[in-house]
Design goal:
D-amino Acid Aminotransferase, Chain A, domain 1, OB fold (Dihydrolipoamide Acetyltransferase, E2P), 11 helices, transport, nucleus, Snurportin-1
């Protein structure tokens, strides 16, 4: 990683409104007064058994009007694509980095993302279950996590832990990238900096990092997390890891664990740290034109998975009926370069070419940031040198501030 000359840091012009949305997200989480403990308990029950979760999480109330449906009750009533999307949105999903944040060195952590299957892992009542983003069970197994096996039940039998992991198949290891709950204590409203500290300290209190055994089917390991200084970025980008890398993840230090897509977590890739920078088709080939997966709405509009969704086009009723499409279907489209414009940080697409339906296991449409990242990757990618320049500019601003204070 060759940094640009230190005396001439370069700031890449912003192409999105990502920074504005980061500021809004931080303000929103500060104003929120949600019951994090109840949220974690409901999620744990729904991950253990969605079909029976409603019975396990009854809400006290004198009438139906007082009854607010819990997370688990909502999950128990969903089926098919709706269930897949619900489970997908229980995980904190990063936006794709379109612009380098202005305070990378001071406000962000960085780590190399393991290649593999993203999942939530819950240990409770002597069993451990991992669920993929679409809600399906990946593994049901004994583990050395708290209450994760019949042999290792400690404390209240009903206490639970929830980890955000990536299962790396080559070494059959769950790499922990975040912690939602530990021994019944919710970490939803804790900062990322605190959660990362707990991942490392609490994991060391168990034998979950030991090699597999009779009562510990899979090994758990924390990923190395760095301050996003020049040294930390270098370590995450170029340093060796026991797993195959699939890009870098950046977490804002002050971010709470927010279910769904958030600009306070960012994913970035290039050819040096990921095998898959530009999306491939069903045959594993990079298509000549950019592809994008969108969600078909009741009114025929085609939207992203963002909240609120971004509308990229629409289909008329005749085409919908002729193609036997239904609202809620995920559809793949090709986009010609000349049909794309960037306006006020948003992509505008004047024409979409229908390709077909994506894999049925897919849970949701592409996000706007992913579409923008894929477009930039084909034309003017955000490079590692741009991230280095952002950190250097941040350092120069801090040095300038220090000089002014001393003066």
């Amino acid at each position: 990683m060759a940094p640009p000359p230190p005396h001439r840091p370069y700031k890449r012009p912003a192409i999105s409104d990502q920074q504005r949305r980061r500021d809004l997200a931080l303000q929103a989480q500060s104003a929120r007064r949600a019951d994090a403990q109840a949220r974690a308990r409901s999620l744990a029950n729904s991950l253990l058994s969605p079909s029976s979760a409603a019975a396990d999480t009854a809400v006290e109330g004198d009438s139906e009007r007082d009854h607010e449906p819990t997370v688990a009750e909502a999950a128990s009533k969903l089926r098919g694509s709706d269930a897949r999307r619900w489970f997908a949105r229980q995980i904190m999903l990063p936006e794709w980095m379109a612009d380098a944040p202005p305070h990378l060195a001071t406000d962000w952590h960085v780590f190399a993302r393991p290649a593999g299957k993203r999942c939530l892992v819950v240990s409770c009542n002597g069993i451990t279950i991992s669920r993929l983003r679409n809600g399906s069970i990946l593994h049901r197994f004994p583990s050395a996590l708290p209450n994760g096996s019949k042999r290792d039940i400690s404390g209240p039998a009903s206490s639970y832990s929830i980890l955000d992991c990536i299962f790396h198949e080559p070494d059959e290891t769950y790499y922990i990238i975040d912690m939602i709950c530990w021994r019944g204590y919710s970490l939803y409203d804790c900062t990322a900096e605190f959660r990362f500290f707990w991942v490392n300290s609490k994991l060391m209190e168990t034998t979950a990092g030991d090699p597999p055994s009779t009562y510990h089917r899979y090994r758990f390991s924390a990923v190395p997390i760095y301050e996003c200084t020049l040294q930390g970025l270098q370590a995450a980008y170029s340093g060796s890891t026991p797993y195959v890398k699939d890009g870098l993840l950046f977490y804002n230090k002050h971010a709470h664990y927010l279910a769904g897509i958030t600009p306070l977590a960012l994913v970035w890739k290039d050819e040096a740290c990921s095998q898959y920078v530009i999306d491939t088709d069903s045959k594993g080939q990079v298509p000549s034109e950019q592809h994008i997966v969108l969600d078909l709405q009741e009114d025929g509009k085609l939207t992203t998975s963002d909240d609120p969704p971004v509308v990229f086009g629409s289909l008329d009723n005749e085409f919908i009926q002729k193609s036997n499409l239904r609202p809620g279907n995920l559809l793949r489209f090709a986009v010609k370069d000349e049909r794309v414009k960037l306006v006020d940080g948003k992509m505008e697409i004047s024409e979409l070419q229908f390709v077909g339906k994506p894999n049925r296991a897919r849970a949701f449409a592409d996000s706007h940031s992913k579409a923008l990242f894929q477009y930039a990757a084909r034309h003017a990618p955000l490079r590692i040198e741009d991230l280095v320049a952002s950190i250097q500019s941040n350092n120069m601003e801090l040095e300038s501030t220090d000089v002014e204070m001393e003066g």
